[in-house]
Design a protein that fits this description.
The protein is of the alpha+beta class. The chain contains two helices and twelve strands, in the order αββββββββββββα. Strand 4 and strand 5 form a beta hairpin. The chain is globular. 34% of the residues are buried.
Length: 263
């Protein structure tokens, strides 16, 4: 009986010994290098942006190959309950050494927009709100269905609480084009969608020498404006799951180039 007990205890003793060894190794590793904050201490939603080999011409031309793939896509924006936003809304990002490119897709049955002056109250029109972070600053850009831009440099962090102090004299230098499928400010007919293509100079947000691995805190949201109707809102990178663009080394060439390269 005692022999049988001893035999059963051996695996337990061995496990304890191995466990103790693991603790020693773990402690030694912790002591060897200074502690760094682990990524999962802050709940980031990473958005991996492919690089483009040539600058994207900003013209909102339909079917452009460089935006065809789902790489660098937020997927459908989420509403406050975590469900996919209705109407469908999505953003994609690309980069080169000088520029961050955005493609903002808005499904929309009723296109509403009237603000045409830069830094005007763009958010009351059908629009996107983009937040980019760098160092201690937050750069906020609103861009509307009319292509009107309101931009400001603020205190705060991308996707966090509403910024307290903003300086609207800051200019992003963003180049914007909009493709609209529908009639503006006319209720009763069925509109379909509008798409913003946008280039933001990285130097305007203090990023020089961008390279693979560069990270930019990022949030984007949209509230659909309807004539007298409810405002459906959705976002990416806002609240508990902050967003962050990561510049990938892989180059996005688009399907046309890929086809041309085949024998
Ligand atoms: Ca401004
Ligand atoms: Ca709308």
């Amino acid at each position: 009986m005692s022999l049988a007990l001893s035999a059963r205890r051996w695996p337990l003793v061995a496990a304890l010994a191995i466990g103790a060894g693991s603790v020693v190794v773990f402690v030694a590793r912790r002591a060897a290098s200074p502690r760094e904050a682990t990524r999962d201490e802050h709940p980031f939603a990473e958005l991996h942006a492919p690089r483009v080999a040539e600058p994207i011409s900003i013209d909102a031309e339909e079917g452009k190959g460089v935006w065809a793939s789902e790489r660098g896509s937020t997927g459908i924006f989420k509403d406050a309950s975590g469900a996919g936003m209705v109407p469908y809304t999505e953003a994609k990002v690309r980069w080169d050494e000088r520029t961050l490119y955005l493609w903002l897709y808005a499904g929309d049955l009723d296109l509403e927009g009237s603000v045409t002056e830069a830094d005007g109250p763009v958010a009351r029109d059908d629009s996107f709100h983009v937040e980019l972070g760098h160092e201690q600053s937050l750069y906020a850009l609103d861009v509307s269905v009319l292509g009107t831009v309101s931009d400001a440099k603020c205190d705060g962090s991308a996707g966090g609480k509403a910024p307290i102090a903003c300086d609207p004299s800051w200019k992003s230098g963003a180049v914007v084009a909009v493709d609209r499928d529908g009639t503006l400010n006319k209720v009763g007919d069925n509109d379909e969608e509008w798409i913003v293509e946008m280039a933001v100079p990285l130097s305007s947000i203090g990023i020089l020498g961008a390279k693979a691995g560069t990270r930019i805190p990022f949030a984007v949201r949209r509230c659909d404006v309807g004539k007298g109707g409810p405002r459906a809102c959705g976002s990416f990178g806002v609240g508990a799951l902050r967003g962050e663009i990561v510049f990938d080394a892989a180059v996005e060439r688009g399907p046309r180039v890929a086809r041309a390269a085949q024998p």
